[in-house]
Amino acid sequence: MNLLEIRNLSVTYRSGADEVRAVDGIDLDVDTGEVVGLAGESGCGKSTLALAVAQLLPRGAQVSADRMQLGATDLLTVDDHGLRRLRWSRLSMVFQGAMNGFNPVMPVGAQIAEAIRTHRPDIGKREIRTRVAELLGEVGIAAGRAADYPHQFSGGMKQRAMIAMALACDPELVIADEPTTALDVMTQAQILELIRRLADELDLAMLVISHDLMVLGELCDRAAVMYAGRIVERGQADEVLTHTAVTGPAHPYTRQLLACFPQPGAGAASISGIPGSPPDLAHPPDGCRFCARCEVALPECAAEVPALRPVAAGTTHVAACHRVASDTTLALKVAR
Ligand SMILES: Nc1ncnc2c1ncn2[C@@H]1O[C@H](COP(=O)(O)OP(=O)(O)OP(=O)(O)O)[C@@H](O)[C@H]1O
Ligand SMILES: [Mg+2]
User: Fold this and answer.
1) At what angle do helices 185-201 and 155-166 cross, to 10 degrees?
2) Which of 20, 81, 124, 205 has its CA 20 to 30 A from that of 301?
3) What is the CATH T-level fold of the domain 4-220, as seen in this structure?
4) CATH 3.40.50.300-classified regions of the chain
5) Residues with CB under 6 A from ligand 1
6) 333, 8, 54, 23: which is closest to 207 by C-alpha?
7) Which residues surround the ion ligand 2 when the cut-off is CB under 5 Å?
8) Ligand 2 centroid to 110 CA: how many Å?
9) Distance CA 274, CA 228 (A)
């Protein structure tokens, strides 16, 4: 059984007179020891999905699902007491833009210690100090830096310290929302390496959100691509996110998104953007939500919502596109 199991999750925000369904009927699993990536353009609902799992959505957001389970805990019915026991110790989150989330007037080590003290009142002072040093060591920061203030840390160090904080109470699931955004390429690579090593060594389940497909392709075991509140493609990360894989991405959105990133060996002229913009989620179109921007749309695409269907026999790779054959023995690839 998967550690995190989500079935048919929807989240609706109220925005004036409108209802915005930011997440619309999503299925997603994350298992122990596995890094799962969630990709998609800005506004497609990635953070909303993460906040729904962590039960941190703003008041007024409506959640519905057939199932949202973390191990034996039903996240749909958990009460406040259960939530307090769950957060940090079983599920923790590195928030989008979190590296700026440290209190500027408190040493970094003291902030990590406070997180431990709040959630594990049973642990003594000396043990907490040892744990803080151990956590900083795990993310490659010398224990002596615990007394430093956040402004004495570089951006990459702050992000690593945030990851250390998320690990403070030995969670089973860590959700990292854009953990490498705003970092330079070298620092980004170090953070990715760190996340991968922690997931393997600590046998964590990790859900990593990023709009950067290159990042997710390198880091993740499995990946899902969201568009306008829905998952449009899902499978092993190398199948979904790399051009060189045997199957490769099947959904035109994933293909066009991937084309927005420079490919090794290709000239700068090959980089392109996706013309148009995602639909207004308060008034989403019928049929496939990518239809208006799709280079290979068929007449039925505007009318019928495509279901997630197998892309190739013998794999878990699925895509929601009318171009993908429903015949599981044949992978009908969309023309590039
Ligand atoms: N508190 C809120 N109230 C109303 N609408 C919201 C709220 N938060 C998000 N939304 C809307 O929900 C949709 C999804 O937003 P979300 O932040 O989940 O996207 P995202 O994929 O994380 O984007 P980004 O990559 O920019 O972080 C957007 O249309 C956004 O405007
Ligand atoms: Mg976000």
Assistant:
1) 20
2) 20
3) Rossmann fold (3.40.50)
4) 4-220
5) 13, 15, 20, 22, 40, 42-48, 58, 96, 211, 281
6) 54
7) 47, 96
8) 28
9) 14
